[in-house]
TrEMBL record:
Renumbered residue ranges of the record's region Disordered: 326-349
Lineage: Eukaryota, Metazoa, Ecdysozoa, Arthropoda, Chelicerata
Record-level GO BP terms: ceramide biosynthetic process; sphingosine biosynthetic process
A GO-annotated cellular component: membrane
Designated gene of the protein: Agk
The name this protein goes by in its record: Acylglycerol kinase, mitochondrial
Length: 396
């Protein structure tokens, strides 16, 4: 009782000491569990390495690592060196490390990538987006996507694409465990096929100037998505800024859905055109490998009767943006934004952006289609190893 009386008399100091103690215990608990995961993964990777050494005729796996050193506030290289690289070496994998030096270099590297058993992309959503587009822009993309699987190592801040790919196969408590588990999918050689969204300009002249853009996860357009991207940098205050920002900004118009075609059976997609909290929004989203109903939002622009059933559908969609909000890529590149927006406010031009896998891109009327099994990605269920014979390490 004297202890409780002492704490009651000095409640400020007691609260401070108790908070520090609880925080330290929580940190130690998380630290211990993360290192247990790393220890078990190292044992598993070492088993693969010993198995390869036991067979001198076994081929050596070669993985090319494309690392973005400035991702996650320049922490990505340190994360890779501590949590990813040791697993590759223990598994006996030959690693070729390439550090990018400029934006868009991942795109150029994947265009010429060859002579490897896989590519590990270490970075955030932007790094992965560039690498995927570089691979799919090749003339031989079908053969390249089949022979060069890619692994997504989440070393960025958001990592939404990696979470989407690994959502059904990886459990993690923090980013370090996510890095370890994603790396072990490359070590295990677990691969799965993934569909992608192909976005092409509707205008024939613009189509000749621009290459198609590919999205692994989704395509978004509208006032809501644009402002969501703007306030995403305010990590601690965005949940307060976002509703206020959307209230003071004017409401825009949704894009016109000109044509939707279906072919059964094929990929699974979801298109939403409508209102999100009173703000227009458009989203084309990959729904993994689940059968889902095609939804067109609350303010439905198009409601075909053949999507009332839950079924597999291939989607070819033409989305025509409002003429007042259209700005061609040529005008944008030549710096003629002011001439193109004489009749529009500055906010209107600023709103005219797509978010493709979370990355901003100039918006224009587009044709959206699905490509089945376009990518081979290292992901899948965890492999359980049963040693051929038990070894008593204590006898060594």
């Amino acid at each position: 009782m004297s202890l409780f009386k002492l704490m009651a008399r000095n409640w400020k100091s007691s609260t401070l000491y108790l908070s520090v103690t609880c925080g330290g215990l929580a940190f130690y608990y998380d630290y211990t569990l993360t290192h247990d995961v790393m220890r078990n993964s190292c044992k598993k990777a070492a088993y693969y390495g010993e198995e390869r050494l036991s067979d001198p005729n076994a081929p050596v796996r070669h993985i090319t690592v494309i690392l973005n050193p400035v991702a996650n506030q320049r922490k990505s290289k340190k994360l890779y060196t501590k949590w990813v690289e040791p697993l590759f070496h223990l598994a006996g994998i030959k690693v070729s490390l390439v550090e990018t030096e400029r934006a868009g270099q991942e795109y150029n590297l994947m265009e010429i990538m060859s002579n490897c058993d896989g590519v590990a992309i270490v970075g955030g959503d932007g790094t992965i987006h560039e690498a995927i587009n570089g691979l799919l822009s090749r003339p031989d993309y079908k053969k390249a996507a089949e022979t060069i699987p890619i692994g997504l190592i989440p070393a960025g801040q958001n990592n939404s694409i990696a979470r989407y790919v690994h959502q059904n196969h990886i459990y993690y408590r923090n980013q370090k465990e996510f890095l370890i588990q994603a790396t072990m999918r490359l070590v295990d050689s677990c691969t799965q096929k993934f569909d992608v969204i192909k976005i092409e300009p509707l205008d024939s002249e613009l189509k000749q100037q621009q290459k198609p853009i590919y999205a692994l996860r989704d395509l978004r357009y509208g006032l809501y998505q644009n402002n969501f991207y703007k306030v995403s940098g305010y990590a601690f205050y965005q949940k307060y800024i976002k509703p206020l920002w959307l209230r003071i900004k004017p409401n825009g118009k949704p894009p016109k859905i000109e044509k939707i075609e279906y072919t059964d059976p094929a990929s699974l997609k979801s298109i939403t055109v409508g209102n999100v909290d009173g703000v227009t929004d458009f989203r084309a989203c990959m729904m993994g490998h689940k059968k889902v109903r095609l939804s067109l939002g609350r303010n439905r622009e198009y409601n075909p009767s053949d999507v009332t059933e839950t079924k597999d559908v291939r989607l070819n969609l033409v989305a025509e943006l409002d003429e007042k909000m259209k700005l061609s890529a040529t005008e944008h590149d030549e710096g003629k934004e002011e001439e193109a927006s004489k009749d529009n406010s500055k906010e209107k031009v600023d709103e005219d952006k797509f978010l493709i896998d979370g990355q901003p891109s100039q918006a224009h009327s587009v044709v959206i289609s699905a490509i089945d099994n376009a990518l081979t990605i290292f992901t899948g269920p965890h492999k359980i190893i049963i040693p051929k014979k038990a070894v008593d390490y204590r006898a060594r």
